[in-house]
Amino acid sequence: MNSLVQKNSALTPDQAFPFRREIDSWDMNSAVQELRPKVEQLKSVSLDVARDLWIAHEALAQRGGDRRSEDAQTFGFCDFLELVGLSKKTAYLWLKLYDAANDRVLTPEEYALENAKSANPAAAQLSPEVQALQSKKEQLLAHAMATGERLYDQGWNELGCEKEYRIRCMNKKLSDIARELYDKKVKYNWKDNDYFSTTVLAQGRTYARFTLQTKEQMIAQNEVLEMMSRYLESFEDPSVRMAAVCNIGLRIRSTINSMHEADLEFNSGAE
Questions:
Q1: Which of 25, 38, 106, 215 has its CB surrounded by the most CB atoms within 10 Å?
Q2: pLDDT by residue (tens digit) across 201-233?
């Protein structure tokens, strides 16, 4: 057994119950006085980081243009992130939350509400009272997504949160399935449940017309395609390169079929 992984019986009390003494002696007033300055400092630093990332992203996009063009610069935003030690996923989250027009960082609830307004411009014309209800709904949904707890006593049913919550849970499940592309265990024998072969390929013309909706999606897709090209070009033997392509195809097929199964399960539960 790895020496770093100990059995429960070998753990010391401090290891088995971390911060037990701090928890037992915890005092609310002392905790507030100690944590409040840190929170204020965090807000300030968060704004600085989000602002710097936004400026860097816009500057590099302006100077680089289309990275697929012949005159595109070789140094892009992802290269910049590597130099500053920040993951792409975290950086794009900051960019989504940053409101450049007002130089502030949105809360997740505010961001969700802004997205809802963008998807439905008519919502911007709603009364402050209705907008407040929508904001409350987003808060309840955010709490449920984070903890799994439905706050019925705070208007869960009255605001119609259940349907939206189930949809968001479904979307999260689909995202988890998509991440299974990295799993080495890929199912390849789907028998009669091969949605990819029977439906997707048969309707290839329809899916080929699929268009992306946001700038972030276009950037992400271009990076995926560029990375795939570099990956395949790394193989000198054509037969090995073909095997690598087939491996990717099997993983994508497995992901699509798993998503289809999850979609069927979701729709059957909604009936």
A1: 106
A2: 877 777 777 777 777 778 877 887 888 888 888
pLDDT in tens, 161-172: 888 888 888 777
Distance CA 187, CA 251 (A): 8
Q: At 81, give phi and psi (nearest 5°).
A: -65, -35
Q: Which amino acid is at 143?
A: H
**SS3 labels along the chain:** CCCCCCCHHHCCHHHHCCCHHHHHCCCHHHHHHHHHHHHHHHHHHHHHHHHHHHHHHHHHHHHHCCCCCCCCCCCCHHHHHHHHCCCHHHHHHHHHHEECCCCEECCHHHHHHHHHHHHCHHHHHCCHHHHHHHHHHHHHHHHHHHHCCCCHHHCCCCCCHHHHHHHHHHHHHHHHHHHHHHCCCCCCCCHHHCHHHHHHCCCHHHHHCCCCCCHHHHHHHHHHHHHHHHHHHCCCCHHHHHHHHHHHHHHHHHHHHHHHHHHHHHHHHHC
Instruction: Please state the separation of Cα 270 from the chain's center in Å.
Output: 25
Beta-carbon-side half-sphere exposure of residue 39 (alpha carbons within 13 Å): 6
